[in-house]
Amino acid sequence: MKRILKAIGVSGSLLVVLTACSTDGEKVQETITQIVEGESSTQPTDDPSNEANVVTEANVVEEVSDSEETSAVVEENPSESEQEVTAVSNQAPTVSAGINQTVKVNRSVTLVGTADDSDGSIVSYQWKEGTELLGQSPSLTFTSDEMGSHTLTFSATDNEGATASDSVTVTVVANQAPVANAGQDESVTVNESVTLRGTGSDTDGSIVSYLWQEGSATLGELATLSYVPTVVGNHTLSLTVTDDDGASSSDEVVVTATEVTSSANSIPTLSSSTKQSYLVAINQARSVQQNCGSEGLFAATSAVAWSDQLYNAAYEHSHDMAQTNTFDHTGSGTQYDWTGVDLGHASSMRDRIDAYGFSWWTIAENIGAGTNVDTPEEIVSNWLGSPGHCANLMNPNFTHIGLAHVYNSAATYKHYWTLDLAQSR
Q1: Tell me: domain 179-258, CATH 1.10.10.10, correct?
Q2: Model confidence at 94: pLDDT above 80
Q3: Is the pTM of this model over 0.70?
Q4: What is the rounded CA–CA span in Å between residue 330 and residue 370?
């Protein structure tokens, strides 16, 4: 620091004016009067001739360090310095309550809030609906039995006490009931099985159960039902489907059961859906390689077509076995062996196929029976497990089939099946 001393002498006195300039430009001025030893101080007069009263002035420039002390210098503490302090305010957290949600009444939805604090940390969270406190963590499971829009607020507080909030809307809607379809009405002869294929759909969920009933009697709990009317007349069956929220709906189908006579004209006409279900079961088996045991390995082969003539021959034989409680490829020779009655002897497979007019090069027949074998898929599965029956099913020469099923609760096996296969001319 440079100090400039200005000395003014007045008749035995020395007036010292000290001006100090610091390195940052600030001026400090002191006035010091020094009395010269042995002389008295006098005040200046207006008499310019009095030389003793002449004012003299001299500049003294002195270079001193900031830490040097003299009688003409204001003492400064070099350890003290001026510092500028800037006050910084706390930044509030940044929060997000997530995206808006839609949920069915009485179903749960999980909300996940997020929070961040750029100059500190998050110390607490809150979820509220209005003034009601719902939770105190970033995630919240929300369930409501009140339909409509619910505004939920997510708040976060940082370590300085600053709080920020964000809102999310949860829309609670009613469950939509499912739709049941019991399928088309069917007509069969009494004691003949018919396959009913029901369906269920749910626009906002899934179907969790099916229930087939006739009156209050439960018939089945799958979408597909094999039904055998045991009484002539109309049978009204209902299918009820239930969705994953407990809502249900129903649909009805009518199965008409007609009288059975001992005439070939009594052979029932199968519905197109039943024919198709029989063909699907057979052709699915033929579409893949099958190991027929002692008969060998059979490669996948071509699909077969439906023949009403082969079906008539198959139905006559299934009906004959069910009514006479027999199980053989040869007819019973009774009144139920219609072809045998006409021929005067028990009918054979060839007799029956010829009687119904199918022109063939090669023919074969599978028969099957069982108390619980009431679907085409089940009887085909049983035949695939038997080498001879499996070989007939997989024979690549066959082009047409007819499959028939007859039920008689009084017979030993109840369900009787006949499959006639042929290579047409």
Answers
A1: no
A2: yes
A3: no
A4: 19
